[in-house]
Amino acid sequence: MEDPWPFAQHLDTNYVPTSQELDELKALVAERELVIDGIDAEMVELERKRTVNAQYAQRLRALSTPVRRLPDDILLSIFFELLALAKPWPAPHPSVAASHVCRRWRRLALGTPLLWMRIEIRLTSTSLWDKVYGVKDSLDIRDYVEPYLSLCLRSLRSLEERVRMFKQRSSGCPLQLQAVVHDNARLRSRSFVDPWSEMFEPLAKLISDPTTRWVNVSLDLAVSPQSSLALHFLRMPIASSGLGMQNATIRLQAWSTIPEARWKAVLPEGKLDLRLAQLQSFSIRMAYADMSHIQTSWDSLTTLTFGSPSPSSTFLPLEALLILRLTPNLIHCTIHLSFATSHASPPLDSLTLGHLESLAIIGDVPPRAFAEALNIPALRSLRTDRATGVVEDANAGSVCLWVERYGTRLKEFSVASSSLTNPAIASALKNLPNIEALNLSFDPHASSSPYISSLTNSRLSISTNEAEVLTPLIPDNATGCLCPRLHTLDLELWDGRVDKTMNAIADLVERRRSADRPSSIARLDTLDIGFRFPPGRNVLLDLEHKGVDADGVSIRRRLR
């Protein structure tokens, strides 16, 4: 029988083949290489067959996935939920993404007009300029202006197509427009022909189409007074004002005063005329000098947010009162104030807003003269937890005066340690017998006052002060407690690593949820705690060990 492996006995030895054997060796090598090539070909074919069968099996499995069996109404509910949860200006838009998954999803998305009601526009000119100009040492930008304008034009045309597509797919449903447009700050001092009016005209015509109904319009504009594309977007709410618009939000920041000529070049007679709109809610944040260009039915507003667009833009308490005098029927109001700590408020004429139920102050705490002038007898909710810059004592300041006047009527109250000292907070809590929702925020770095600065020197003093404020809220069988009707408590605390603060929180929950508490003290249903520095122990476990129901108690990392 022929040996299947010739020369096997000579492998891995020092054997020297003869000339005849060398010829045999070459023939054997060629023969084996043919065998190897055949095996390789078979392996390639097997791999191909495996891939084909694996892909086929995968596609078969895809046919049986649960999502395919979802009814259209359930699938639409998911679409709407994704749309509601999406962050502003997602790329791509959730409705657009859904319409590109498969034929069924596309048919469902395109056949549901409510998925296309929210139109979002984002155009930051600085990012467009960076694409053209980049980072260069030369200060001469003239060679880059034309390419930059060309890129801006293409961006506006793209936005125009986006708006047209959403309008078409919304099938006449009332639309919501949210736009963020920031001018190029690097060109604000340059002088060249203003091309924006012509560029913006096609989009303006599309927005002002009488067949379109805009129910909500929100604009965040950063304006370069010398040459502004962003300012042209104010033409949108004007075009929408007679088309059923009910809510408008406008935030306008300008690097300097906008010349009157610029207003008149962009808006009819230089006015943002919204008198035809059926506005119930209006948010307008811009410098007071620019507010004179706003025309609206102030006396019909029930919800108003106004004031400084940024901390660097001044908006005085006197100016706020002048705006409030135009709005006798307000129910909800938020005011953004910004002024120097050295500002001395002049005597202010009295103003009564008889319908105002909720007031929020953001920015700088107004002086006591502001609170003395503003009479709000129907006040039910007062929020000052985002007001900083002034630390008031128990006998001075606007917040304490409001609480003293209206505390028995208040149902909701929010305050920060940056606007009231702890004694002042304690004094305020004594005047809140019917409060149901309370927010207390502690931040030792929110003010430059000597009082707050002293807190930053000691972690213990910060936490001790927090505990001192919380302790009077803990029910005592003999004396009761402050805020006995409290149901909801939000705490923005600084440091959770100190036992005194954590003990006060645990005692507060335990006693306000005790079955033995006095009938005059309401059960604390909700407690939300945010810590800048996370606690060293778990309050929820402490409550569990005490046999206290911890449902409704949540702990999180503080965002600010």
From TrEMBL:
<feature type="domain" description="F-box">
    <location>
        <begin position="68"/>
        <end position="121"/>
    </location>
</feature>
<dbReference type="Pfam" id="PF12937">
    <property type="entry name" value="F-box-like"/>
</dbReference>
<protein>
    <recommendedName>
        <fullName>F-box domain-containing protein</fullName>
    </recommendedName>
</protein>
<dbReference type="InterPro" id="IPR001810">
    <property type="entry name" value="F-box_dom"/>
</dbReference>
<dbReference type="InterPro" id="IPR036047">
    <property type="entry name" value="F-box-like_dom_sf"/>
</dbReference>
<dbReference type="InterPro" id="IPR032675">
    <property type="entry name" value="LRR_dom_sf"/>
</dbReference>
